Amino acid sequence: MDITTIAIAALVGLVIGLVVAKVLEKGKASKTVANAKKEANSILKTANIEGENIKKDKIFQAKEKFLELKAEHEKVIINKNKKIAESEKRTRDKESQISGELAKNRKLNEQLEIRLKDLEHKSELYDKKQSELEKLHKRQVQQLEVISGLSAEDAKSQLLESLKETAKTDAMAYLQTTMEDAKLTAQQEAKKIVINTIQRIGTEEAVENCVSVFNLESDDVKGRIIGREGRNIRALEAATGVEIIVDDTPEAIILSCFDSVRREVARLSLHKLVTDGRIHPARIEEIVRKTEKQIEQEIVEVGKRTVIDLGIHGLHPELIKAVGRMKYRSSYGQNLLQHSREVAKLCGVMSAELGLNPKIAKRAGLLHDIGKVPNTEVEVETPHAILGMQWAEKFGEKPDVCNAIGAHHDEIEMKTLISPIVQVCDAISGARPGARRQVLDSYIQRLKDLEDIAFAFGGVQKAYAIQAGRELRVIVESEKVSDEKAAQLSFEISQKVQTDMTYPGQVKVTVIRETRSVNVAK
Fold this sequence. Notes:
This protein is mainly alpha-helical. Helices cover 69% and strands 7% of the residues.
């Protein structure tokens, strides 16, 4: 409590006491006043004492606060001094480090200057020696020119010519030796691989033809098939595109058509009609439509089974259909699907023997003849190898497979090792005995024509058509035909065969020239 407040309260109390004393007892006024004065004095003393105590407490608290603030201030100053000392120390360390690096740099610069001076001195010496050598070289060249009577350029050209001739002769000899060794090794290895491959593949002989025989239970069914005025047989021929021959053959009808798919549709439709018993034009058209759908499904199933059996994955659905359609196609009496499966297996075996990828080789072997099974009735003049390559490219096959398909009859250039393998396996499958059926007379005539073409050229002594007409070996007279002429004769005969004859696959023309020297020792 403040001293002034206490004093004011005491005065107020005194005044009140005086007023009350005057009002109540005028007689006791003096006594009351005296008591009031005493109380007032005692209150003033108490107030003074309390004020002094409060003042002392406040002064003490102020001193403590001052001491606390002073101690905190001293701590802050000490921390700042420490940081300043640390920064000064780091600065001194950096200065010492920099001064050390500067000293090292000065030493390095001095060493570099010394080395540069040495190099300059050495370069001067080198230039002097180079100039001296050039002078000596010129003198020697002049002396050699005077002695030989040739200029430096003439001597250089003569030396180069002699070196070229020597190098050319050595290179030709080395090349000839290398080629002979390679031919011997390649022929042996190729024969071994081909023989092993053929021995591991067993296939059936060709049995395909252009007619099918539909057997009947009795000849009475023939009349129902023909119908009134022949309307049933005409409707069946129009719906299937197959010629139906009804003759005197007992209990049999002949279906004739080059398209084996149509022939199969006609056979199955006839079987269903005869089994059902209801044979009329509307029923015939319905049965033929259902049979065509059934054949289409069977084509897809055959393609899928073939691809699965050969372990080929990721083939486009359209290519799978093309593989299935091969079942109903034949080439020279050889079933195309069986031929393609055989070629695929041969390619897989042969590529494995050569260390190549057998999966890609099988894929190319299976698809090499897909150009023979177009899914359209329009005639296509493009060769089947090129057409098959275009389809394979269209349906996302790899470039190696496409090149092998297009090059298996040499229509395009072979760019991968798979291409010759497919070509060889195709020839193995088509040229083996019994693979393809031909008329004997036409076959013999083709062999004679091959030999006659060879005899038409001068200098030919003998000619033999071998390997089922796939190779023509020509023996010439060594006195009339030189080695260069033999090579030219082989080319001319092959061109003549290519332009004048029609044949499956390709024909290899080999010209043989032999010289003999015979003496008898007695």
